[in-house]
Amino acid sequence: MIDSFHIVVCAGIVPDPLQTLEPIVGPTGPGVKNEMLLPAVLDPWAASALYEAASLAAKRPGSRVWLVSLGPKAKLQQLMMSVAQKASFELVPIDGPIGGFTDAHAAAAAIADAIGAISGLDRSKLLLFGGWESATRGAGITLQFAGERLGIMDQFQGVDRIDSHDDGSFEVLERVEGGKHQASVCMGPPAVLGWATGNLAEPRNNPQVGMANMRTIMPALQKAKSVPMASNGLSYISVSLPSQQRTTRVVKDLTADEIAHDLVAWIEAE
Amino acid sequence: MSSPEQASETRRQTMEVDIACVGFGPATGGFLTTLTQAWSQSPDDPAFESKIAPGMPLQVLCYERADDLAAGVSGVVTRAEGIRASFPKLDPTQIPMSTDVKQERVFYLLDPIGASRRSRTLRVVDFFLRVGEKLCVKNEAFELPWTPAFLHKRGGLVFSIGQFNQWVAAQLMANGLVQIWPGTPVSSPIFAENSDAGRRAVLGIRLADQGVDKDGMPADGFMPGMDVHAQLTVVGDGPVGQVGRALNQNGNRPKGRDWALGMKMVIELPADSTLEPGTVWHTFGFPEPEIFGFLYVHPDRLASVGIFVPSWMSDPARTAYRYLQHYIQHPVLWKHLKDGALHSWGAKSLEESGKRGEPFLAGDGFARIGEGSGSTNMLTGSGVDEAWTTGVQLGEAVLELLRGGRPFTEQNLSATYEKRRRASWVESGVRQAEHARDGFHFGFVRGMVGMALAGLTRGHLRLKAKIPSATEQICPFEALDRAEKRQRDDATQKVIEEGRPFHDALLTARGWPEIPFDGRLLVTQQDALLIGGKVQAMPGFADHVRFLNKELCRSCRERTCIAMCSGQAITQGADGTPVFEREKCVHCGACLWNCAHAADEESGNIEFLAGAGGLHSAEN
């Protein structure tokens, strides 16, 4: 019987989506203009996975949480300043290239290798968490590939909820068509869970959690190994941002009907 | 439901550290850089052993209110003497948006519209300049034949404070010796029980409560702000920071201070721009005589363009965003900016008193550095390098005390930090500048004369004035002439009938032309918040702007807080009370010094508390 989990959260870093993002094609392929200049945030989908992992670990004493992230060491370090106060975890940094245009197979291989090398990780307790998709530019398949490389056959995608049972099994709600969920019961770890938004609010910043995390995060960052990413012959034909058009009106005290009418008119015009 | 105080009693956590810093700006950057550079060179030095956790290294934490360390506000031109001294091998190309200063120019801007509030003297000056137009006026601007020595930044740097902060933080965090936490507002200092005007003593800081409603009452996920007890609290939270302002009380700071709101845009210049990176322009005279402006050109066709709206502009209709839009359209600037695009936007209050507003620099367990400690040089218009250097001075003092095994008492900090500061170029600079801008309280022309006098004589000659409180600097409604009163009434009517922003309606009523929005550079203020400032507010924090006496607000006819609010976060409520929307606030702090009605001798009727959120732009 499994009484605790070893949860590994795979979390990509992305430029803060509030920044001005401009795709460019550089000598090494597509990217975002001045990406090193932009603050990095945890991919919002993966952030949900981290908060769910922390919540699940808190319910199961003895559980541990690792955060595996691939990106330039400086960006990972920057990211930790905004994430490490929110949940307890141990960081497994992979010092790699910036940008989300690396080959998903190569990224998954690096992630699987890093997870395989985690000291103290019990694979019989392993839950591999991550974002179902990336909010910016991920291929949406890296997590599955990493799971397969680790030999994990039970995979769930679009997860909104997990309920663990005393016998070590757990029930998972996955998003399916029509706004419905599919409920599955898994007999126990190991499993891959690609999270949608989950149901948890972003945790409050807890300075004590941050201080405790940093005692392991900074040494881990200092020891992070640089991992080159093979392109495997991958090439991108084009890269573009979704079109954005803002037409602001400042209107107060509209009724719900009027707002609904406005929305319908806007959707029809699109 | 229990009050925060009641709920806190049982659940408030405490933590012990050696050094707690409040605010991560240039001053704290200088402090932590100095400390960690010495620490890295001698990691085994027993001086760096923690006093609160023997056997462990020194525990040094820094808390920053903004959501990210790159979310600072200011395009900066600085002589960078202090910064270069800390980083002798500094390569500006390693810091995005940084470059060496290449050329400086100073322009007096004429008013091509005819709407600015110019005195008769100034109109005469303008007339004669226009007469000689072909000789000395181009694009409605008169260029000074030289940049006064006191103003020049030769050998200096142009950079973005957000990018600089981010770069400094990366250096600091990389060595693992200090922790810097953004998104963590500090609500107050923790005073020692017997702390008063005679003995100033601080035990640490209290972080802001989380999981509260807008009034600060416990709500979902309530987490009382932690008490962080520190051997030394380093206060570098700027002029509107909650901790610094709390320390100002009990007569710890001179009354009567000048302020300004700095608002700027980062603009992507047109593809055919001829402006060279490192170009620096200083301007004055437009959109109002009292409003100074600037243009700094960064690498990669980016430019910071902005204005300073000072508190000595007594007009209760003072505002910034609409003025900034007119400013960038001035022919001498528009020639270069037209067809550009808005990249970023932001605003910040500046402490314009310099030395005159200096508070006590140290007490038992605390020291103050940076802009909030009166380090800004009002003559050279320079604050970043001075702030950095005060941080360095405190860093050196702390190293001296640590190595000597001496505690952080007022006496020891005065003998080390304050002594260094008094003997430095920062001190001599702010002394020369102490009364440089006093003349502006007599009008624009006398202000310029006073500045020139102080600048050319190194502060020996100056026009001295008694500086009124910020509240008293706002001309009361009753003192306005009939035409101005009518303009304000017209504007108020438009706010009510058309839902127009108050500042916008005021300037239109005054004859300023409507802004020809192009959706790229000339955008509404609401769009500037979203596409430029990327403003947002984390849930779970209380409203940080509160109106103390609502009856006083209802009877207010100046409404300067509404006109001056940088993010239109303060608007006119239906019952006459201003309404605050936290989601739009950029935390510039302008509301603090733009209330025309005093709650006490120094403060207005607005309370400005510690809050999270605000700008998310990394280019400011």
Helix count, DSSP H or I runs of 4 or more residues of chain B: 18
Give the overall average pLDDT of chain A: 87
CATH level-four homologous superfamily name of the domain at 18-87 and 162-255 and 356-431 in chain B: FAD/NAD(P)-binding domain
User: Mean pLDDT of chain B, rounded to whole units?
Assistant: 90
Largest sheet of chain A, described in full? 8 strands, mixed
**Assembly type of the shown chains?**
heterodimer
Roughly how much helix do the residues of chain B carry, as a percent range? 25-40%
What does this structure look like?
The complex is a heterodimer of chains A (270) and B (620). Helix content of chain A is 29%, strand content 24%. Chain A is of the alpha/beta class and 270 residues long. Chain A has a single domain, classed as Rossmann fold. In chain A, the strands form three sheets. Chain A has an eight-stranded mixed sheet, sandwiched between helices. Chain A has a two-stranded antiparallel sheet with strand order 2-5. Chain A has a two-stranded antiparallel ribbon with strand order 3-4. In chain A, helix 2 runs antiparallel to helix 5 (207-223) and helix 3 (104-116) packs across helix 4. The longest helix of chain A has 17 residues, at 207-223. Chain A is globular, with a radius of gyration of 20 Å. In chain B, strands 1, 2, 9, 10, 11, 14, 20 and 21 form an eight-stranded mixed sheet that branches. An eight-stranded mixed sheet of chain B has the order 6-7-5-16-17-18-15-19. Among the domains of chain B are: 18-87 and 162-255 and 356-431, FAD/NAD(P)-binding domain (3-Layer(bba) Sandwich), CATH 3.50.50; 477-608, Alpha-Beta Plaits, CATH 3.30.70. The two termini of chain B are 41 Å apart. Chain B contains 18 helices and 25 strands. Helices cover 29% and strands 21% of the residues of chain B. The model of chain B has no long low-confidence stretch (mean pLDDT 90). With 620 residues, chain B is α+β, with helices and mostly antiparallel strands. Classes of the chains: A alpha/beta (270), B alpha+beta (620). Chain A binds chain B through residues 16, 18-20, 34, 36-39, 74, 77-78, 81-82, 85, 201-208, 210-211, 214, 218-219, 221-222, 246, 248, 250-252, and chain B through 13, 15, 61, 63, 67-71, 96-97, 163, 166, 169-170, 173-174, 176, 179-184, 207, 210-211, 220-221, 223, 226, 228, 300, 343-344, 499, 524, 526-527, 530-531, 534, 536, 538-540, 616-619.
